[in-house]
Design goal:
The chain has about 525 residues and is mainly beta. About 5% of the residues lie in helices and about 40% in strands. The strands form eight sheets. A six-stranded mixed beta sheet has the order 7-8-9-10-38-33, with no helix packed on it. The relative contact order is 0.12. InterPro entries: WD40/YVTN_repeat-like_dom_sf.
């Protein structure tokens, strides 16, 4: 027996408090008290002996006792031999800055706080197959959300062209050039990177690894492995810009397949293994919002119903977060903002179905709450998915007018800043890349104008090139870099640094390409 919307933790004994009162750990980190009516719950301490001598009912009822939230959503119950006191273990909030945020400048609209009644969902592991579904939602938007991926900060960026070719923008000994990574199958998107390996999906949904082994570049088909799966999209980010990625012995990448189910692919120690994590029982998954940046062992996703869910990779439980019935999220990835790894405080940023910026904020004082930031100004909505976060206080987004906007905290106040789009004078800002003669077989230089130029920013999800730079794709296929100079203080100083000609550009192309061998 278990409380409603919760499960008693497995293989962890309960504690007998007194006659008629027993406390059990729950899978979600809270405590469940099984007690006689009128003798338990948060409003009842230990009862006097005279009280319990009266005749007791033989019927038990459950009360839920909230516990402090910890890293991993208190999931350690299932992996460590601890009793109920383990609910407060883990990375607790120890940051000195515990003051609540003041969002008083054109204050964002706050939805009422998350209700205490949370819903932990049991997954039907025998869901009917959906192989014949003709409408593939995920593949329509993967071009916008997984078009680019940074491999090494300020040195290597991968781009998937519309024709399925894979290009790498590489700084080789101070020289920028484009490398073409050839494969017999056209690629669809870049879904992740780990330990120097890039993970890509082809047009058939097969997951591939592109990596270097000594002097040789290899392709590895992960879908062809034992119990391999096809995928459609993956995690939006590989970590926080400027921070080293935490490496563990159980590291895994998560993907979503075209049927809207979450898939886990273990990559630690190259012990590759697939696992089907299913999906919430009431919807299919649209995209992963965040994988373990905001909380270890927790994967946040948005359902195709516009609702926010989380999956706990330890307990294997799905959880639906409270949302106002009037708030629907767009079916796109999100961005996690966590100012300090020593504090649980932070936010998930997403876009609403109406194109406004939405924040799901957690603080130790107030718990979870929704904050609606709206749009930069009237007549402009946000397009695509939110961009990268910097310094735990700055977020980049793209507007429907083709301009870049930054939502940032100044002191204790949120503000919008417009960075427009890069200058239109090609001769002044275009990056002219070249290569040395021994670049490799198939080296090719292209220069000149082809077609028309459009310097406005496209609705493609931007990527962080380093902890001080972000790369956007323009509507004509070129790339543009917005950079913060070393002398910049605080949130200011972001400037357009250059426009990068690409092999996929419909505008001026000025670059070297070579076949990666």
């Amino acid at each position: 027996m278990s409380p409603e919307h919760a499960k008693v933790a497995r293989n962890v004994p309960g504690v007998h408090v007194q006659v008629g009162r027993m406390v059990f750990p729950l899978d979600d980190g809270r405590l469940g008290e099984l007690h006689f009516p009128g003798m338990g719950g948060t409003d009842f301490g230990p009862s006097a002996q005279s009280t319990i001598r009266r005749k007791l009912s033989n019927k038990y009822e459950w009360s839920i006792l909230d516990a402090p939230e910890t890293e991993g959503w208190n999931a350690e119950y299932c992996t460590e031999e601890h009793g109920p006191t383990n609910c407060i273990s883990g990375a607790k909030n120890i940051a000195a800055d515990t003051e609540s945020n003041d969002l008083s400048n054109n204050p964002p609209s706050r939805r009422r706080k998350v209700e205490e009644k949370q819903h932990y969902l049991n997954v039907n592991r025998y869901q009917q197959s959906d192989e014949t579904e003709s409408y593939n939602f995920l593949s329509r938007t993967i071009d916008l959300n997984f078009h680019m991926r940074v491999m090494h900060a300020d040195r290597s960026l991968f781009l998937i062209a519309d024709n399925g070719l894979t290009f790498e923008y590489l700084n080789s000994n101070g020289v920028w050039l484009w490398l073409r990574h050839e494969h017999v199958t056209a690629m669809k998107g870049t879904l992740g990177s780990y330990n120097g390996s890039l993970y890509l999906v082809d047009v058939h949904g097969n997951l591939h690894i592109r990596e270097r082994n000594g002097d040789e570049l290899l392709w590895i088909n992960c879908t062809a492995m034992k119990k391999g799966r096809q995928v459609a999209s993956g995690s939006p980010w590989d970590g926080i810009p400027g921070l080293l990625r935490r490496v563990t012995t159980d590291d895994a990448l998560f993907f979503v397949n075209k049927r809207g189910r979450l898939l886990q692919f273990t990559v630690a120690l190259r012990k590759f293994k697939w696992k089907d994590c299913h999906s919430p029982p009431d919807t299919k998954i649209a995209f992963i919002v965040d994988q373990e940046v905001f909380r270890r062992n927790i994967i946040f996703v948005v359902g195709r119903n516009g609702r926010l869910y989380q999956y706990n990779r330890i307990t294997e439980l799905w959880h639906r977060h409270y949302q106002s019935p009037h708030l629907f999220l767009s079916c796109s990835p999100g961005t996690a903002m966590r100012p300090s790894p020593l504090s649980l405080a932070g936010s998930l940023f997403m876009v609403s179905e109406h194109g406004g910026l939405v924040e799901y904020h957690f603080s130790p004082q107030d718990g979870w709450e929704w904050v609606e930031h709206g749009t930069p100004h009237r007549g402009v909505t946000l397009v695509g998915a939110p961009g990268p976060c910097f310094d735990g206080s700055q977020l980049f987004v793209v507007g429907s007018d083709g301009h870049v906007y930054r939502r940032h905290m100044e002191g204790r106040t949120w503000r919008w800043t417009s960075h427009g789009h890069p200058p239109s004078e090609p001769a002044a800002v275009d990056e002219q890349s070249c290569a040395t003669p021994d670049t490799g077989a198939g080296a090719h230089y292209a220069d000149g104008f082809r077609g028309s130029c459009d310097g406005k920013v496209a609705a493609v999800r931007p990527v962080p090139f380093s902890e001080d730079a972000v790369v956007f794709e323009l509507r004509d296929g070129r790339l543009a870099e917005l950079r913060r100079p070393p002398s910049a203080d605080g949130c200011g100083g972001w400037e357009w640094a250059r426009i990068i000609g690409t092999p996929a550009s419909a505008c001026m192309t000025s670059y070297w390409t070579a076949v990666a061998t």
